[in-house]
UniProtKB/TrEMBL annotation:
The lineage of its organism: Bacteria, Pseudomonadati, Pseudomonadota, Alphaproteobacteria, Rhodobacterales. Residues 41-131 form the GST N-terminal domain. It comes from the Bacteria. This is Glutathione-dependent disulfide-bond oxidoreductase. It comes from Paracoccus aerius. CDD domains: GST_C_YghU_like (cd10292), GST_N_Ure2p_like (cd03048). PANTHER family: DISULFIDE-BOND OXIDOREDUCTASE YGHU, GLUTATHIONE S-TRANSFERASE-RELATED. SUPFAM superfamilies: GST C-terminal domain-like, Thioredoxin-like. Residues 13-26, 276-288 have a biased composition (Polar residues). PROSITE patterns: GST_CTER, GST_NTER. Residues 1-26, 262-288 are annotated as: Disordered. It holds the Pfam family GST_C_2. Residues 134-277 form the GST C-terminal domain.
Length: 288
């Protein structure tokens, strides 16, 4: 890889580029092998991994349960590093081969829901929760939800990729995406100066979508030392908002679901029952 690359007339894949996730990157879509998805006993079946996009949905499901809604679910692990997202069953649930994907078996035939933002809206409408009823606040929640869906690829796929994952550190790419990540953090910081939550006083799916990305990066939970590199202390309002949400019991459970790295006591690879948080975390499974 050099810095004097001249693109050929027609691009072609030259094999592995050595980067993290290189083995799962292909320029084509569609199933690569036959594999049905497992189905558990609950109406909602989630197929995911505890990346920020996955955590949005498990936080929402745990918040719904915490609030007394009948949102019981099975969460199955999709190991994207192993290519599980290219199995035929997963591709039928999400033709885009990305976690999270959900199937709602409470309707016939079962309904697929993919794209984390779509899943959040689907669940909010299904249970009538975490999307404000007031039209102005509801619109504001949707504004920020869609802001997140459009913005986070610059934080994750742009900044996170080139700062933490790329096999070579390319100053141009890191500069470009750091600039944008910091601009986005400043957008949030200014908004949260006058608002307790993203849509005002009410905690909503907009917070659940934004927190796993921007909240966790400011709190030093994403991309190694990125919080220092981004000088995250200057985003004090984002930090205040992060800290308030981080102590919610549903958030603490939600971020554990489908987690396969870090402290074993915080990893719940699959979630099929509320009691799993007490009995099935990796520290306990490992000793059984
Ligand atoms: N816009 C999608 C993005 C989902 C996404 O990028 N998922 C990543 C993990 S965070 C994934 O499944 N990557 C696997 C792959 O690219 O093959 C959403 O919000 O659901």
């Amino acid at each position: 890889m050099t810095d004097d690359y001249t693109p050929p007339k027609v691009w072609s894949q030259k094999g592995q580029n050595g980067g993290q996730f290189a083995s799962i990157n292909k320029p084509t879509a569609g199933a690569q092998f036959d594999r049905d998805l497992p189905v558990g006993r609950h109406p909602l079946q989630l197929y995911s991994l505890a990346t920020p996009n996955g955590q949005k949905v498990t936080i929402m499901l745990e918040e719904l349960l915490e609030a007394g809604h009948d949102a019981e679910y099975d969460a199955w692990l999709i190991r994207i590093g192993d290519g599980d997202q290219f199995g035929s069953g997963f591709v039928a649930a999400n033709p885009n081969s990305k976690i999270p994907a959900m199937m709602d078996h409470s309707v016939t035939p079962p309904r697929r829901v993919f794209e984390s933002g779509s899943i959040l809206v689907y669940l909010a409408e299904k249970f009538g929760a975490f999307l404000p009823a007031d039209p102005t606040a509801r619109t504001e929640a949707m504004n920020w939800l869609f802001w997140q869906m459009g913005s986070a690829p610059f934080l994750g796929g742009g900044f996170g990729h080139f700062y933490a994952y790329a096999p070579v550190k390319i100053e141009y790419a890191i500069d470009r995406y750091t600039m944008e990540a910091k601009r986005q953090l400043d957008v949030l910081n200014r908004h949260l100066a006058d608002n307790r939550f993203m849509a005002g006083d009410e905690y909503s799916i907009a917070d659940m979508a934004i927190w796993p990305w921007y909240g966790q990066v400011v709190a030093g939970k994403l991309y190694g030392d990125a919080a220092t590199f981004l000088d995250a202390d200057i985003y004090a309002n984002v930090r205040r908002w992060h800290d308030e949400i981080a102590v919610r019991p549903a958030v603490q459970r939600g971020i554990m679901v489908n987690k396969t790295s870090g402290d074993p006591s915080q990893q719940l690879w699959e979630r099929h029952d509320a009691s799993d948080f007490q009995t099935r975390t990796q520290d306990k499974i490992g000793t059984q």
